[in-house]
Amino acid sequence: MKKAMYPGSFDPITLGHIDVIHRAAEMFDELTICVLNNQAKKPLFSVDERVKIIREATSDLDNVVVDSFGGLLIDYAKEKQIHISIRGLRAVTDFEYELQIAQTNRLLSGGDLDTVFLTTSLEYAYLSSSAVKEIAMFGGDISKCVPAFLIDSIYAQYGIKR
Ligand code: ADP
Questions:
Q1: Which of 27, 93, 124, 126 is most buried per CB count within 10 Å?
Q2: By alpha-carbon position, which residue is closest to atom 2 of ligand 1?
Q3: Tens digits of residue pLDDT in 106-134
Q4: From the CA of 155, how far away is ligand 1's center (Å)?
Q5: In whole angstroms, what is the distance from residue 137 CA to residue 140 CA?
Q6: Nearest-10 crossing angle of helices 73-80, 92-108
């Protein structure tokens, strides 16, 4: 069985992430989405909330599993026996950061964990979780950025009712 994981903060999940998930889910028998418990960032949604949201956003895909982790990605991969990590590339600016993570993971895992990059679909090239937060904070339109069911709960985090 070909397994892969897609790790990230997903705070919040965007249509760009969902596009990557759909494409990766077609390539592998099982895709595990790992919500990163990154304590350094002050999140919009808790890890448990993000897991729940991503489950809802991917309920149409029966080979997608949603999980969370707080340690080193290579330890998670080893425990789950996953050897491929999926990451998305939007622009050259992502590349340097992503290359560094990919090479570090490969080195730390003794070659056991490789990274597969999917380039963004052009309509989502501009889209990031931080852009969604900045737009939502000021009551801007996020309907082309995130799944419809999530819109109200994002505004609610900023005390905005629409
Ligand atoms: P992290 O905080 O680990 O970078 P993110 O949730 O921001 O996590 O992103 C997870 C992965 O998804 C990263 O590889 C990122 O480059 C990719 N990604 C984010 N937005 C998009 C998008 N619009 N199109 C394609 N890939 C994306």
A1: 124
A2: 9
A3: 999 999 999 999 999 999 999 999 999 99
A4: 21
A5: 7
A6: 60
